[in-house]
Specification:
Strand order of the largest sheet: 1-2
Number of strands: 2
Structural class: mainly alpha
Helix content: 40-55%
Number of domains: 1
Order of helices and strands: HHHEEHHHH
């Protein structure tokens, strides 16, 4: 897949997160992209990337949602856990540029309007303030961790009585 953009890598990562357990709806992919820190701003670019992924055999429509094919999942595997989003996007983009599909697959119909509807639905859900399962965990304050000390026991030290 020779012409790759950052949006291609962001779409792959967002779909990987959103469709871990089951095929994800388009709104869930948009929410995962927002959690990654690369929100969907242009429905046209994301729809074009989505169609390109389907043509190259990386995304399929399944069970009312979308999921990555095994080839698509392989491109997102074994990324460094401590890398930030921009590093992960860079690594996935490199893998995408080296990816050569075995054969062309039928495209999944995707329009700009579908992405814009998903963006609007995600914006409405974000304003409601409900529980979002894709929210990142809060960072632990390092200063608070240092104050506890690694060897401190809650009920004092073990003493041997002899």
């Amino acid at each position: 897949m020779y012409p790759t953009n950052d949006i291609d890598a962001q779409l792959l990562l967002a779909t990987l997160i959103a469709s871990k357990r089951r095929p994800a709806e388009l709104v869930e992919i948009v929410a995962a992209a927002d959690v990654l820190g690369c929100p969907v701003t242009s429905g046209n670019l994301w729809a074009e990337s989505f169609r390109r992924f389907a043509t190259h055999g990386l995304i399929v429509a399944a069970e009312g949602g979308y999921a990555l094919t095994p080839a698509g999942q392989a491109l997102g595997e074994k990324l460094p856990k401590k890398a930030d989003t921009s590093e992960r996007v860079f690594l996935v983009r490199e893998r995408l540029s080296a990816y050569m599909p075995a054969e062309k697959s039928p495209s999944v119909p995707m329009s700009t309007e579908q992405f814009e509807e998903a963006m609007a639905a995600h914006a409405v859900a974000a304003k409601q303030g409900g529980k979002n399962l894709l929210m990142p965990k809060p960072k632990v304050d390092e200063d608070a961790q240092r104050g506890r000390g690694p060897g401190r026991r809650p009920f004092g030290a073990n003493r041997r009585r002899g």
